[in-house]
Amino acid sequence: MTIRDITIAKLQQxxxxxLQKVSDFIDFVIHKHQAEISDSQPHETxxxxxxxxxxxxxxxxxxxxEPASNYQQLLLNxxxxxxxxx
Length: 86
Hints:
- There is one protein chain.
- The chain is built from 4 helices and no strands.
- The protein is elongated, with a radius of gyration of 31 Å.
- It has helices at residues 3-12, 16-40, 44-58, 70-81.
- It has a domain at 3-60.
- It is mostly helical.
- Helices cover 72% and strands 0% of the residues.
């Protein structure tokens, strides 16, 4: 029998209140294990991921939308004549 099988057999013999305590303890152990994993992973991984994201975003081309109407085109032309860039 594996440790999993032995543990399941023991769980099947417990009353409901004890099962609740075991379940709570399992939740605690899982939470503690996840905290240990996140603490063991350096924050550099997170920094590296964000840096890569910013690098990609900085190289994206942003193009202004085409004017939807003649009025918008005339308005943009007027602003450009005044030296404004939108």
